[in-house]
Amino acid sequence: MKTQLLDANKPEDIAAAGEILRGGGLVAIPTETVYGLAANALDGRSVEKIFLAKGRPQDNPLIVHISAFEEMAPLVKEIPEAAKHLAAAYWPGPLTMISEKSDIVPPQVSAGLDTVAVRFPSHPAAQAVIRAAGIPLAAPSANLSGKPSPTTAAHVLEDMDGKIEAVLDGGPCAVGVESTVITLAADPPRLLRPGGITLDQLRAVLGEVQVDPAVMNPLAAGEKASSPGMKYKHYSPKANVVIVDAPFEKYRDYVNAHNAPGTAALCYTGEDAALDVPAVCYGGESDYAAQARELFDALRRLDDDLGARTVYARCPEPKDVGLAVYNRLIRAAGFEVIHLG
């Protein structure tokens, strides 16, 4: 298969993407979070192609993307009042809401669950493609399963060239980590995956919102994943990532004492000069938005630029958008953390 590279700034390329999707093909599209690998969400056979292209486990549910709030209604049995309030505050944007699904959503999308995850992205190209296709789009991140999510079209092509019909280049993603996922099928609502909409922002609208234990910890044995990004080791470069939870001085000393060939560091901006190993920076220590925006590109650079075998990573502070960064990095590390205090 030859993968076309389309331009999100060209109306004819938006139309071409819509035609491919209507015909049952796959198109990687830009969103404000990461690039998504899109297919017709109402056609189970098209959705199955996503799992094949990504090598994605079949029990990992997908998110359905829409281009207007009204398009949520056919996908769910009813729109909860909480969804209306959250949509008024944060849609379009990096927020996914889970509620009980309608019969038109095929089981391939929901991984056999009785719920569906729905998002209204804010990226104008994503909205334009959904409108051009005339259908809701199922779209997980457009990478090989387990690898760092793509935030540029070049990242997508690294993983998907020859596997999908087209990539729509809309430039780098503004948020850089996948959307916040909240389930409204639970009482009280529960945060399943942190993202660009923070826990405090959710609570400002809904009041009580619980945090699922899987946000900070591995999914319990035998527990089904009710959201993408919960069950498996995710977002990981080829290198073995180890998080070092320590103040910078202790982190520096630890890394400099463990500087065998093939060792690299993932640190905050400006810290690399004090380290005796090659390093990639991913935002300032207290700039959580920059950390989120730069994390996945930094993880890919550890492979592509440094060929690292072992990476010692600065531990993100799990608050605000930093909770999303922590959630992604702890999974990239397979929950391997060294606590130095």
UniProtKB/TrEMBL annotation:
<dbReference type="GO" id="GO:0005524">
    <property type="term" value="F:ATP binding"/>
</dbReference>
<keyword id="KW-0067">ATP-binding</keyword>
<feature type="binding site">
    <location>
        <position position="115"/>
    </location>
    <ligand>
        <name>ATP</name>
    </ligand>
</feature>
<dbReference type="InterPro" id="IPR017945">
    <property type="entry name" value="DHBP_synth_RibB-like_a/b_dom"/>
</dbReference>
<dbReference type="InterPro" id="IPR006070">
    <property type="entry name" value="Sua5-like_dom"/>
</dbReference>
<dbReference type="GO" id="GO:0003725">
    <property type="term" value="F:double-stranded RNA binding"/>
</dbReference>
<comment type="function">
    <text>Required for the formation of a threonylcarbamoyl group on adenosine at position 37 (t(6)A37) in tRNAs that read codons beginning with adenine.</text>
</comment>
<dbReference type="GO" id="GO:0006450">
    <property type="term" value="P:regulation of translational fidelity"/>
</dbReference>
<dbReference type="GO" id="GO:0008033">
    <property type="term" value="P:tRNA processing"/>
</dbReference>
<keyword id="KW-0808">Transferase</keyword>
<keyword id="KW-0819">tRNA processing</keyword>
<dbReference type="Pfam" id="PF03481">
    <property type="entry name" value="Sua5_C"/>
</dbReference>
<feature type="binding site">
    <location>
        <position position="119"/>
    </location>
    <ligand>
        <name>L-threonine</name>
    </ligand>
</feature>
<keyword id="KW-0963">Cytoplasm</keyword>
<feature type="binding site">
    <location>
        <position position="65"/>
    </location>
    <ligand>
        <name>L-threonine</name>
    </ligand>
</feature>
<protein>
    <recommendedName>
        <fullName>Threonylcarbamoyl-AMP synthase</fullName>
        <ecNumber>2.7.7.87</ecNumber>
    </recommendedName>
</protein>
<feature type="binding site">
    <location>
        <position position="60"/>
    </location>
    <ligand>
        <name>ATP</name>
    </ligand>
</feature>
<feature type="binding site">
    <location>
        <position position="139"/>
    </location>
    <ligand>
        <name>L-threonine</name>
    </ligand>
</feature>
<dbReference type="InterPro" id="IPR038385">
    <property type="entry name" value="Sua5/YwlC_C"/>
</dbReference>
<dbReference type="GO" id="GO:0005737">
    <property type="term" value="C:cytoplasm"/>
</dbReference>
<dbReference type="GO" id="GO:0000049">
    <property type="term" value="F:tRNA binding"/>
</dbReference>
<feature type="binding site">
    <location>
        <position position="149"/>
    </location>
    <ligand>
        <name>ATP</name>
    </ligand>
</feature>
<feature type="binding site">
    <location>
        <position position="56"/>
    </location>
    <ligand>
        <name>ATP</name>
    </ligand>
</feature>
<dbReference type="GO" id="GO:0061710">
    <property type="term" value="F:L-threonylcarbamoyladenylate synthase"/>
</dbReference>
<feature type="binding site">
    <location>
        <position position="235"/>
    </location>
    <ligand>
        <name>ATP</name>
    </ligand>
</feature>
<feature type="binding site">
    <location>
        <position position="179"/>
    </location>
    <ligand>
        <name>L-threonine</name>
    </ligand>
</feature>
<feature type="binding site">
    <location>
        <position position="193"/>
    </location>
    <ligand>
        <name>ATP</name>
    </ligand>
</feature>
<keyword id="KW-0547">Nucleotide-binding</keyword>
<feature type="domain" description="YrdC-like">
    <location>
        <begin position="11"/>
        <end position="197"/>
    </location>
</feature>
<dbReference type="InterPro" id="IPR005145">
    <property type="entry name" value="Sua5_C"/>
</dbReference>
<feature type="binding site">
    <location>
        <position position="141"/>
    </location>
    <ligand>
        <name>ATP</name>
    </ligand>
</feature>
<keyword id="KW-0548">Nucleotidyltransferase</keyword>
<dbReference type="InterPro" id="IPR010923">
    <property type="entry name" value="T(6)A37_SUA5"/>
</dbReference>
<feature type="binding site">
    <location>
        <position position="33"/>
    </location>
    <ligand>
        <name>L-threonine</name>
    </ligand>
</feature>
<comment type="similarity">
    <text>Belongs to the SUA5 family.</text>
</comment>
<dbReference type="InterPro" id="IPR050156">
    <property type="entry name" value="TC-AMP_synthase_SUA5"/>
</dbReference>
<dbReference type="Pfam" id="PF01300">
    <property type="entry name" value="Sua5_yciO_yrdC"/>
</dbReference>
